[in-house]
Design goal:
Layout lengths: L1 H27 L12 H8 L3 E3 L9 E9 L4 E8 L5 E8 L2 H15 L3 E2 L7 E7 L4 E10 L4 E10 L9
Antiparallel strand pairs: 1-2, 2-3, 3-4, 4-8, 5-6, 6-7, 7-8
Length: 170
């Protein structure tokens, strides 16, 4: 009997360890802050704990802005827009700032966190930088351009899942 128990014990241990590692890997893959890619609008609103409100609009083309609100970190404040696909699944987050000082600070923090960016700026276009955060499965895009309405530089961050463009099987 003790032999049978000892044979099951390693199997049970390995199974429990595999389950714990799977849960830890899922927790480490946080998508964007308090959300997970693919969440519904209701799930995102619940996770946002009152920080987001429905836009009341739904466009036929996707992605569309389904929720708006604010997002704050210890050092930054943003206007937030949550993007959803035609099936109402979360596909992206757009964070906007409206002053040059905020944008410079945010860009510095992004460079500190992610390192060198891929520069996607076109000759006449706004500054556009991109980082792939493979650990979190996110693409982070920073764009800034003059905002003529208030004489400042405005910027936005776009978070979206890294999606493979490779064909199935690659």
């Amino acid at each position: 009997m003790s032999r049978s128990r000892s044979c099951r014990s390693p199997i049970a241990y390995v199974t429990a360890l595999a389950a714990a590692l799977a849960l830890a890997a899922r927790a480490a893959h946080a998508d964007w802050q308090y959300t997970h890619w693919g969440m519904s609008k209701d799930q995102v609103m619940l996770a946002a704990n009152g920080a987001l409100s429905p836009t009341g609009t739904r466009r036929a083309e996707a992605p569309y802005v389904g929720l708006r609100g604010h997002y704050e970190t210890a050092t930054h404040r943003f206007d937030a827009a949550m993007l959803f696909d035609a099936g109402d699944a979360l596909t992206g987050v757009v964070l906007t700032q409206r002053t040059s000082a905020e944008c410079r600070s945010t860009l510095g923090d992004l460079q500190s966190k992610y390192g060198s960016a891929q520069d996607l700026t076109t000759r006449r276009g706004p500054l556009k930088l991109m980082w792939n955060d493979a650990a979190a499965g996110n693409r982070v895009i920073y764009e800034s351009a003059p905002a003529p309405e208030h004489g400042e530089i405005a910027c936005r961050l776009v978070y979206e899942p890294i999606a493979s463009s490779a064909a199935d099987g690659l």
